[in-house]
Design a protein that fits this description.
The protein has 15 helices and two strands. It is mainly α and 332 residues long.
Length: 332
Amino acid sequence: MAADRNSAVGEQPSEKPKKAAKAPRGKGAGRGVSKAAARNAAPGGAGTETAAAGTPIRTAAAEAAEPESRLAMVRRARRINRELADVYPYAHPELDFRNPFELLIATVLSAQTTDLRVNQTTPALFVAYPTPEDMAAAVPEELEQIIRPTGFFRAKARSLIGLSTALRDNFGGEVPGRLADLVTLPGVGRKTANVVLGNAFGVPGLTVDTHFGRLVRRWKWTEQEDPEKVEAEIEAIFPKSEWTMLSHRVIFHGRRICHSRKPACGACPIAHLCPSYGVGETDPEKAEKLLKYEKGGYPGQRLSPPADYPGRPAPPLGASAGTGTGAGADAE
């Protein structure tokens, strides 16, 4: 981790104070390591220098080795969010949808599979069942056959028919715009509800999926594992107006660079702010080969991405997208 790589053990004071040795350059002070820490790390030093009057002076390396204060963590977290906004100005929900009902159905289908697989499956699904009324009346076996590529198709078919029936009977065939109402629907929890609220209704919310949880723990924003506790702690760090876009940026970063098993640390644009730098590949050339989707020069997950998306659209079901699309990466 970055703090460990740059911690130093102090020099012994002498009668005549000596100038601190420069930190060695190269991999140890390379990409992703704090420049301030690299400048102040002294081989064999304790993180202190001695002034002419004999008064110890704290160095950046010594301060970096100390526990981070709550205020410092919040400032670092908000800076990461700002820098991710520059890296992913096009961040967006990676499910194709045209209305709240389609987004709700696609989000339920996305459990235990990739957004790409869902996006390749929903065109045929919404041709067959364009409204809640249509899906509520579906023959289970026929619905199962359409959604089979997304996995767990029998359980998902029950959820889709159940929530469509609830929409028809309890909400006039419309998707409700309140979290308290959404979570009463079969197969809908807080994560799904927040996705729908944030992207179909403009109501801010955090999407705590596996990527979001993994990254906020790597960045030391929280130590919580329970999604609801993670949500509460992260909400306390950021203004409510940032919650939805923060979710998109963090998830984008987790899918493209900060992978579960092999993070591309050496190609990470926010490595200098990451306390977990070094858990993945730090060699820049090797790290570049780990990048996914548009960052690696491959198609994205949406068949119909937003106009500002810089990558290529995903291929339809059955077509080859080439390697490196991350088809299995976002299901880590």
